[in-house]
Amino acid sequence: MTTPERQDDPFEVLGLPRRFDLEPAAITKAWLVKSAASHPDRQPDASDAAREMAKLNAARQALTDPERRANALLRLLGGPSKEADRSLPDGFLERTLELREEIEELLASGESGERDRLEQWALGQRQQYVSQVSSLFAAAGSSPDESALAEIRTVLNDWRYTERLIEQ
């Protein structure tokens, strides 16, 4: 039987180390191995198999998305939640307002290719956050102090706002 703590730890559910820098292929492989073992045809109780598959699928989704993986890892390391710490980097508001204005102007221009250019910019921004968070987790190690965890939270808060902007 799975403990509630294990349910909240997608790394443990898939049997993966608690690290940010997991390769997508490793996540998929762990999910395939665990899901094959949990398949309803291999379980005496179909409802237990369905619950286990739901946990495996949720863990895979959490670890496949770099932002969700970072938030899960931060929580498991004892870092602050986004609800508990809403810190943002200096200059965040000004930068965000300028960026929003620039995006609105580009889209309003109606020039072909602007949407593609913005999409490429968004992908680049996302990759910068992934790299920054990866470096912060690597520098913090397996027992990070409160200041390292707070710094990671600040970057994740910034990342989330940028993702929302991209989604809009």
What does this protein structure show overall?
The chain is mostly helical and 168 residues long. The chain is built from 8 helices and no strands. It has helices spanning 4-7, 10-14, 24-37, 46-64, 66-76, 92-109, 114-140, 146-167. It is globular.
Tally of DSSP β-strands: 0
- Please identify the structural class as seen in this structure: mainly alpha
User: Rg to the nearest angstrom?
Assistant: 19 Å
Shape: globular
Instruction: Measure the end-to-end span.
Output: 42 Å
Unreliable spans are 1-7
Strand content: under 5%
Helix residue percentage: over 70%
Q: Give the quaternary arrangement of the chains.
A: single chain
Main beta sheet strand tally, sense and closure: none
What's the tally of helices? 8
SSE succession:
HHHHHHHH
Mean pLDDT: 88
What's this model, at a glance?
With 168 residues, the chain is mostly helical. It contains eight helices and no strands.
Considering the chains and any ligands shown, give keywords for the structure.
0% strand, 168 residues, 8 helices, globular, disordered N terminus, 71% helix
Write the layout of secondary structure elements.
Layout: H1 4-7, H2 10-14, H3 24-37, H4 46-64, H5 66-76, H6 92-109, H7 114-140, H8 146-167
Helix pairs in contact: 3-4, 4-5, 5-8, 7-8
